[in-house]
Amino acid sequence: MIEGADLRSEVERLARKAKEASRALAAVSTERKDAVLARVAAALRSAESAAVLDANAADLAAGEESGLSAAMLDRLRLDRPRLEGVASALEAIVRLPDPVGQIVESRRLPSGLSVGRMRVPLGLIGIIYESRPNVTVDAAALCFKAGNACLLRGGKEAFSTNRALAAIFARALADEGFDPALVTLLPTVEREATLAMIGLSGVVDLVIPRGGEGLIRFVAENARVPVIQHYKGVCHVYVDASADREKAIAIAVNAKTQRPGVCNAMETLLVDEACAEALLPPIAAALIERGVELRGDARTLALVPGAKEATEADWDEEYLDLVCAVRIVRGIDGALAHVARHGTLHTEAIVTESYANAERWLREVDASLVAVNASTRWNDGGELGLGAEVGISTTKLHAYGPMGLAELCALKWIARGEGQIRG
Amino acid sequence: MIEGADLRSEVERLARKAKEASRALAAVSTERKDAVLARVAAALRSAESAAVLDANAADLAAGEESGLSAAMLDRLRLDRPRLEGVASALEAIVRLPDPVGQIVESRRLPSGLSVGRMRVPLGLIGIIYESRPNVTVDAAALCFKAGNACLLRGGKEAFSTNRALAAIFARALADEGFDPALVTLLPTVEREATLAMIGLSGVVDLVIPRGGEGLIRFVAENARVPVIQHYKGVCHVYVDASADREKAIAIAVNAKTQRPGVCNAMETLLVDEACAEALLPPIAAALIERGVELRGDARTLALVPGAKEATEADWDEEYLDLVCAVRIVRGIDGALAHVARHGTLHTEAIVTESYANAERWLREVDASLVAVNASTRWNDGGELGLGAEVGISTTKLHAYGPMGLAELCALKWIARGEGQIRG
Fold this sequence. Notes:
2 copies of one chain form a homodimer. Chain A is built from 14 helices and 16 strands.
């Protein structure tokens, strides 16, 4: 194993090679890029994928030995149906329009100059992730279709699986006449390698950390390159005094229970004191019926005998589970104050029939998606019409919310003239 | 004077106060914001501005004593006509539409949910500048109209002038019922204070350094907050074999001489070897006639006897003066390679009548503005229809090119529903 200065210079060498390879991608046709993705999909369905399943079996065995939880092992596991899912996701990316070269905000200036903004690749994107190995393929495919090279650092537990998946991608690139360095997996998951990668100012154009709070903080604090964080979602549903009872129940249940383990699930329910007596008991009953454990403040406990007592820490907890904090607040001002303090800039929903309160919520809440009378679960690239996404950014600069193909690009100005000069 | 840990905690205190004050700004009407800007403009035209002129006289005297160049002293100087210019610039900002609350890309999803993206303030923006003191007012006004608080660190030589200008802004804010902390000038220009400011992750939302290379590198290397660089412009005009002679002369002359001291002026002229004999002599003659010193490669010297010999360093030089590097290249590939190596992602123009080469230039050149048959001087927020700008970003993320009001905002997603849940 390489270490220390050697490791750092190896990471830099790999990054420079990937960056160099990215330069030619800006001018490549959509057809040629899609051919690579189709080839990866085909490989995942063919005998080639045996190497992935073998590597995954080894990762799983090592994981079991080291005592990974059942949930972690499940996240790590790849089988034929899951590989089919990865292949289908690739085909969905093939169907998405190519963002590179798209021209937006085009117009003619008084001088006759035609100006607009053209989407262009960012260059080299570093993706740091801890989650399922399918991210290796998904993220690489999105970066590639948007004309970028990528440098991947996956989770320690999935290292062999990730290596096998990256090898399949590299082969498809080479077979289609591209430089395989366009998708580069770091040779080690050592912290030192991550540090080297996020320090390569001028080489790595963007780093996207996805995963636990500790990882994201580590990257944000040590990076010398731009970082777009995909941070935890402590998402709220606020039930306003004027809320429609059926909408409130449906939205709370959907936001909490449709898929509790994801970042856009509700973690805290806020209820206006003016309607708490009427609306909280039926909402709580609907949640409890679906197996949700409620943790409430003192006033909630009085109305919902089945709830446990919440501690101050519950307001900042991302349960990712069938657990929900509940708090009674003083009207929309109380809700706005709670969200400003405990929200994580992710997704915040209000249930209301008040025009004024809906408008205030939309204007005043700072989050990547602010919703009125809709579930927090809508904050998703596919649902919002972006297609596949690398995740949901809680960084306000560049991309706030789901990051699809367009968000993996920059917008440069272009001007077409017939000799225009400035007077 | 405060120093060390005390200085750092004082900067943090000021920043937190400014950030806190910014929270209320998102919901403030355009009318109320414009009233502040109008009040600052009126103050600059009234007796109040005597304090600014006095402070400026002190700065100028100190500058002369410390041996500032005549050009530096001129940049530092404020007089009645220049204050009138600052006041007029404020009025132009008043006339610009308010970016906050603008909704773009609005559409209805299949579920009936209406989604769109709403422009919202970023929060607290740090501006670090070395240039003319009018930036104090211009930058503060743009940040404020876009709903942001700002933390300003101006040039050492202009410290007293900047303090007097910031005091006028603070008074106008207070008189209109706003927290004067919304425009906060750092109490010292010490490097320690700048370091403290760019380290305030989670408090300062964005730092924009404007000025010399050294300053920008220092900020980029030490920041813990997002940075959008406004870097030097080594801008090129490439005269293609198919170029129209008159357009080539007019564009080269305009790009170099219309205002040589700015970042979007041409610094290097590239000429295709296929047309060099025919086009370079008349272009060179037109430039020399306007007092431009030419520094050419060996083949240029053979065609332009008046030129001096260029060194390797000339290809990376931002002269900001009536000096121009000239190089003969092998067709568009030679020009693209030169620009990829020596360009600074700022502004790059081609003069051509070839459709294919125009398209290649637009697609393949990486710069904040890529132009065909137009002067590099068009890369300007006012000219491109953005109104006033805080500068021209050469950072590809978030804002590439002129940063106007919209670029000082983030785009959050909003969703308006009637109870939509995900199935």
